[in-house]
Amino acid sequence: MFAHYKWQLVLYWLMLSGLIVFGSFVGWDSGLVTIVLQTDQSKISFVIAFVFLVGTFHCYTRAIYVSAQINQLIDLEKIKQHPDFASSNANQRKLLINNSGVSSRSISLSYLLQSNILDINHTVTSNNSTASLDILISKAKNSHDTGWFIVDALIKLGLLGTIIGFILMLASVSVTDSMDVTSLQSIIKSMSNGMGTALYTTLAGLVASMILAIQYLLIERGSDCLIERSIQLALDFSSSENSA
Fold first, then answer.
1. Residue 131's CB: how many other CB atoms inside 10 A?
2. How many CB atoms lie within 10 A of CB 76?
3. How confident is the model at residue 84, as a pLDDT?
4. Which of 98, 118, 156, 228 is the most buried (most CB within 10 A)?
5. Which pTM was predicted?
């Protein structure tokens, strides 16, 4: 999905970010964002907005990293098609890779080296292959758990705002001694403010978490693509060596 051309994952993320910015502008222009921020007496909406921006920046860094790794993988796939690659030994293959500009930080290259795939006379044990694959997956999905924690935290913040809103709503009733018209008007106003806090913080938390989850889902798909194509490349190397 993301290995047709370089920086494809970043371009997808930028397109998604553009839609988010456009939606935010529409919400601000229509006054919805202003209503949410002004109605929220707990100010949790500001915290939700800040956490959302932190999560979005984290998505950006992960999109850059995963996309750069996919770029290195594309270069490795091109090296495999070199006419001298199939008949070359391990040192010659590594020289071809070095001359191609593939970075030593490429996790796909590290996976091939740790699995001894680049060596014609390699012997890959089950434990070695499993360990190399575990390292590949760990590097490809590094800190993604942090991202999903942020998504979950946004939902929890929205629920926290709901609880605070109901507390504010009930507190306005408990502190009232008399039940005249003026007091009732004050109670109704306080209850509506508390209800507004509860509903708007819930809305902010759910919307922010869903938008951020879509971003992380995109990054997850890019990481899965990186892992799958790295494994497929290793299998292609092995099959070409066996046929040779």
1. 13
2. 20
3. 62
4. 118
5. 0.82
